[in-house]
Amino acid sequence: MFLPLFASAQIDPVSRNLIQFGYNQAFEGHAPFSGYAYYYHNQPDFLRTNLTLRLTVAPTYVDSNLGFVGGLGPNTDFAIGMAGGGFADSYDEIHGGTYYPSESFDGNGGEVSFDLYHLFNPGDLIPLNLVVESTAHYSVYDRNDDTAPTFQLPNDHGDFSLRTGFRWGGVEPVLFPALAMELSVWYEGHYRTDAGAYGYSGDRLLRDQSHLFWAEAALSYTMTNSQQNFYLRLTAGSSVDADRFSAYRLGGFLPLAAEYPLSLPGYYYQEISARQFMLLNGNYLVPLDKRMHWDLDVNAAVAAVSYLTGEQQPGAWLSGVGGGILYHSPGNRFKALLSYGYGINAIRDGHRGANSVGFLMQFDLGHQPGGRINTSQPSLHRSILWLFGE
Q1: Residues 6+ away with beta carbon under 8 Å from 329
Q2: Strands, E, within the chain: which ranges?
Q3: CA 13 to chain centre
Q4: Beta bridge partners of 282
Q5: Mind listing the pLDDT tens digit for each residue in 90-119?
Q6: SS (H, E, C) 297-353
Q7: Which residues pair with 81 in a beta bridge?
Q8: Is the four-CA dihedral 375, 215, 362, 114 of positive or negative sign?
Q9: Looking at the DSSP assignment, which residues form a beta bridge with residue 189?
Q10: Nearest by Cα to 322 from 278, 285, 351, 289
């Protein structure tokens, strides 16, 4: 599970050298491992002024991307990518709040991708981009020590996917961004080889096609005088012919495990498998000391879901709350959060309610000392202030 599931929605124009770590530990039940650890490197002007190298290195996985700024015209960029490694395609079966190791298995894979980004409004405060990404991925599955001998694994298969969408604004790949906004809509289609039944006597299905549709609205803002920060995200999605490998999976509090994290504090990571969902996340940071190195963090989430067939459980509404203490060093070079989460509607042993603790850490290897509010995209900074009339 040490895999960063980033899907880049534009070429990152900012130089970055980040170490990211996140971990959730449940108090009740037997949960699968929930965590990520990786190094994120982004280097504009790589070899030439119009090349950008993005590299993500996890303990068992490497994801690389080479972007060509203006490669297809003054407002159209493209990128080519390669990724692969171990355990990236592993699957943990969680149903009704119970983890089933006997129905879980390891998966390894690799892929190549081609991405296109077109900017519609050069010079505007908030960029509007068209994103098109095509990917060819191959997955190989293996039993682990807990997989039942009678459980048939899904076929090794190729997955050819197309993802496209419009994105207005954007959110930087950092822990608790000081300033950010985004409105986006997306479509993602998967077309698989060697689809078919698997499991116990073929009781579940790897579909040959799955189609996903989702939208995101996000806003993060830091108040200039008090340095209090709020971060709101509203995400909604639907699907056609989703299966266990393409369903929306909600749960946990690991904000940098995916580009669009579906967080529910107190739940197991990816505990809920949904065909359709609507999720509202809110996070609020309040400084605790005059030097503003310590913050009180309060977060909450509420979701309405339509469960994937075979993964149903009582109740369509899910909610969770959490809180913790965030420390950030002078200049925000280092951030660490110790948090607690309570899953209000999580099912554990026939009862509702679940507890977990988490730890998040970010270390910026290339950060320059600066003030509390730090955004490395000045145009985006101006855009957020413009929205608030400042």
Answers
A1: 293, 335
A2: 16-26, 34-44, 51-58, 61-68, 76-85, 91-95, 98-119, 128-142, 157-170, 180-192, 196-198, 204-206, 209-222, 229-240, 248-250, 272-287, 294-307, 317-328, 334-348, 351-364
A3: 20
A4: 232, 300
A5: 999 999 999 999 999 999 999 999 999 999
A6: EEEEEEEEEEECCCCCCCCCEEEEEEEEEEEECHHHCEEEEEEEEEEEEEEECCEEE
A7: 65, 113
A8: negative
A9: 162, 211
A10: 285
- In whole angstroms, give the CA distance from residue 285 to residue 211: 37
* 159-184 residue pLDDT tens: 999 999 999 999 999 999 999 999 99
Per DSSP, the three-state class of 383 is helix
| CA separation for the pair 249, 251 (Å, rounded) | 7
- pTM, rounded to two decimals: 0.91
In 3D, which of 174, 209, 168 has the Cα closest to residue 367?
Answer: 174
C-alpha span between 76 and 130 (Å, rounded): 9
Name the token pair of 110: 């690799």
**pLDDT tens figures, 183-218:** 999 999 999 999 999 999 999 999 999 999 999 999
Phi-psi region of 198 (alpha: psi -120 to 50; beta: other; left: phi over 0): beta
